[in-house]
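Recap from last week: sequence in, structure out.
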Amino acid sequence: MDFMPNTEELSKIFSEATAPAFLLGAVAGYVSILLGRIAFVLERVRTIHDISEEDTERIRLRSDLPRLKRRADLLSRSTYLALCAGICTTSLLAVNFISAFLGLQHAPGAALLFLLAVVLLGSSLFRFAQEVRIGLSEFDHYR
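Predicted structure tokens:
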């Protein structure tokens, strides 16, 4: 059994890795956006929690807490799903390379991993859309 693929086989391996590598890059950028949004929401929750009972002008802001907690929950779920999609994509890349080096048939497993990654990413986008809808439809009371 020859463990070192020739130049033609290596070229095929790298061309098959292009789509998953782009998907992995997109997932990484998307997770970065999600983490930025969740950081903003959590900072807003902390700010509202710091309002004292004596501050009668700003105490009304506490009514935003349930909505902000819902947004944080949706962003958390979206981030988790996106990270799972990234793990599936990384596994897909590993399966492609390992099976190519070992000369194994990997198309069915690779297709399943890619489908799973896309479904997880789609689910994450759905949760993110729910959070965006809440964020745009019900504004904070600010100040």
